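Schema walkthrough. Field components (list of strings):
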Amino acid sequence: MTKFFFPLILFIVLAVFLAIGLTRDPRAVPSPLIDKPAPAFALPLLSDPGQRFDSKEMRGQVWLLNAWASWCSPCRAEHPLFVKLSRSGVVPIYGLNYKDEREKALKWLRDLGDPYVATVSDTDGRLAIDYGLYGVPETFVIDRNGVIRYKHTGPITEEALQDKILPLVKELQK
Amino acid sequence: MTVVPEIGQFALILALLMAATQCALPLIGAARGRQTWMELGSSAAQAQFFFVAVAFFCLAYSFITNDFSVLNVASNSNSLLPMNYRFAATWGSHEGSLVLWSLMLALWTVAVTLFSSRLPLEVRARVLGVMGFISVGFLLFMLTTSNPFVRLIPAAVEGKDLNPLLQDPGMIIHPPMLYMGYVGFSVAFAFAVAALIGGRLDATWARWSRPWTLAAWCFLTVGIALGSAWAYYELGWGGWWFWDPVENASFVPWLVGTALIHSLAVSEKRGSFKSWTVLLAISAFSLSLLGTFLVRSGVLTSVHAFATDPKRGVYLLSFLVVVIGGSLALYAWRARRVGLGGKFDLVSRESFLLSNNVLLVVAAASVLLGTLYPIFIDALGLGKLSVGPPYFNAVFVPLTALIAFMMGLGPVARWKRQSLPELAVRLRWAFAASVATALLLPFVIGEWKFKVSLGLLMATWIGTTVVLNLWRRIRVASSEQSIVKRFTSQSRSYYGMELAHMGVAVCIVGVTLVTGYEERQDVRMNVGDTATMAGYVLRFNGVKQVTGPNYTAVRGEVEMSRNGEFVRVMNPEKRSYTTTTESMTEPDIERRFTGDLYVQLGEPVSGGAWSMNIFYKPFVTWIWGGAALMALGGLLALTDRRYRVFGREPRRAAASQADEVKAAPERATATIEES
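Field assembly_structure (string):
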């Protein structure tokens, strides 16, 4: 009658995962794409699907690519930091709108502010696969040569911004 | 500075001691057969309730009197905050909500001591002991990691104010309801664990657990619906469900609780699925605990999440392991002795109920998986992320369709054995009507869409089978009876069941139509401009500044008319809270039976013009109306004669009914099914 043990075993496995989950300081996990060229893309703009944004235009600049979606609550949490960062003008931020509905995404930007120089629509999530996205939000730091230098998984925090991302951006902009 | 917080603190410590007594003495007494020890459980539980209540009111007093020398008050309230929200702020923080949690648990425990006089002393002692253990866990958690009465010396001059999102009537009623539901499952849990310890799991066990489970389920249904209704107007973008981890944390126990009330019915009436029912009873509460852990430990990100602290997570996880792991180990050890119970054929009411049970559990498991997926990925070192509605909708819609189909079959089918052709004949008109409605109605409403059609198919199928079933029962009732008598001779639990099922149908209609035919316009409006939406004409008359108790706001004035007749002035607002400097949009909603007009003030554009978001949400109220019907159905079933505690000779009535069911289950059901 081992079947009565299944629930217990299942729970133990779950508890182990939860325990590991507790020890994780989330965010900032290395990605296989670090120090590799950022996959090039040319996708329609969220604001005007008739136009496309080509990532090649960004050569020679350090920029941030932030993947987000209107249905994603962690994105909502990190958003004010991007709005603040965009006002400071330190580094241009581009948005990658992941598997979203255009209307909802536009409304999201209207309600919460639009920190992005431009946002591209990745409606079917294909670009997300190229960038190895586990989900949203994720943020990439891309250097002048179009190489991914850093990836932040999960909502960005003030510390991550001050301690990791901004120093790295300054370093790369030198 | 008053001494009230210290009294509260002291009351919490006394409550902990009482809970420890309530846990240890009855359990030991039951094991050793000491009657006096077992009897102590009730008094200890009542004393525990008293002290938790004292602590709760001390905290509430500190909030109401703006005692900013209490850290919790200083961080979550403000002297400008209106009185009702100051009171609600008592449970607005992590610490305060734990006090509410404990208060609810103590309340349920006291209810058990009051309404369980007919339980054997041993069973009652074990139930109270298990509930005492849970109380100890939470009181200890509070006192060691999350003390709500910590002083702030010197006192703050002013408080930081309650999160504006929480400054809403929803905050006053939603958390207490939700917690009543969550915590209420602890009673069914305690009954299950007590039965496993005692080694006796029979139909009486199921009958004792049923009303408690049903009551908890009603509260949880109302709690979830209130949360959804609140999100609809307060989160400001008119959605009513976001698959947010915290919503899921309440929805998963609800799904399992729903499975549990059905499974308990079978265990009571037919003696079948007993080990499965016990497992569900353990799971429903375990999932409530898991939800608590997820929300408070910081392993997930959510709009709801409380400020987190690793110590809390470790404590809660350990507690989870002890309670859930312990009860599941007990289950693994004892469940084999439970036995299999009544046999039934592949096609029978039992098997339909069992399949629905499995479907509900699968639905719960997939929602849980989606919620925990980020944790798994993180634990495997792959990152931290959010699984969005695309996943949840993709798995949930097909499962709901299957569940709805089974819901139509179950109540109509016979216990034990059902002939399939007979069932088909009986339901052919319901099926035909549902298919016809599903195919044609969308054309009438507007555009034909597959999802709308599917949703309408589910809803009409449930609705028509409910009506059919009632009609059949009335028709077969003894023919000498007057028609009124035939209606009144059906039991309340039967009506409750049908009402709740109708609620599901109503809810599905709401979800389907609002998802399928929602309209929105984002317009830029100058003073004097008009916009038209769903037959309403909206005229923008400009904005004015208004001042609230703790905020300032821009209030739009929108004149609404329909067919040339003035209806009313709508006042959507954009508020800016003084202390937190957060801004909130407060939409104005014209609620109608067939749809809501939802008007929201956007941003000022230029020269007095404003951007405005206007939604038309057809049948959206039906979502919560359906939930209300479900809860009402549960309530109605709860008032059924056989659960009545203070009725005439409850003991004998219950016992004779049990005997009857045991002695001649065929006969008992035959009177209902045939004539």
